[in-house]
Amino acid sequence: SKELSLTLKLSYFNFTWGDALLNVIFPFAYPDCGLPHFNLLSQKLPAARLEYCIRELERYLQPFSGHCCLSSAFEFMVDNVESLLSSATTDDDSREPASQSLLDKEGEGRNENQQHEQEAVSFIRFNHLLKGPEHKKEKAILDAAKKDGLSGAIIWGTPGVILISNVDDEEDVQEYMRTCKTIGKRPDGPIVIHVMKEALEGAGVGKRGSKLAEIDTAGLRTMLGGDEGLLREALGVAN
What we know:
Elements: E1 4-9, E2 21-26, E3 37-41, H1 47-61, H2 70-79, H3 81-86, H4 101-107, H5 112-115, E4 118-126, H6 136-147, E5 151-155, E6 160-165, H7 170-183, E7 188-196, H8 197-202, E8 213-214, H9 217-223, H10 228-235
Parallel strand pairs: 5-8
Antiparallel strand pairs: 1-2, 2-3, 4-6, 4-7, 5-6
Helix pairs in contact: 1-2, 6-7
């Protein structure tokens, strides 16, 4: 098995970060074993600046060691971007920007722009989606997704959520929702959220026409980069 790796473009949360990418590697035993490993990557910011930002982030997160800290890490990077990018560093800021060797290694030859590309994902909510052979309506809507060649994921429970990804035409999603309603499962939505393709792949969400992957709320949170606001939006939970 592999360690889970997540890479996010920080400008999605605060444009001041420019092209900076925050790479997070979760150890096998996270969070019990300590903190994740963070890397900050950029073609424009000097290496010394990137190293300084990571040192400050890791110093801030030390009290969280042994606990889930991803959302705290993002909040720190977003809320403190001005001071992180303007404070004096102990190294020479004139050094060349950090290389992209980590991304090249993880991508195994994939184009960097493709690796960090986002994809529109439609989130369809239901009052409940219950797993088991006795729940025939749930089985029917899964069969309908397969028949329509849709890919994505399902979250069982109350509420239940189906994610539809890699759709060429939004009408395909609308047609699927009409099918669900005919079956007797009334859908709500869709809510469209842009998700990193790398995060989708990490959650097992496959290519168009593949079986819907089964994920839980924790997996969805990781897929959304630990953003609790997006998580509540996807699940239809009030703030």
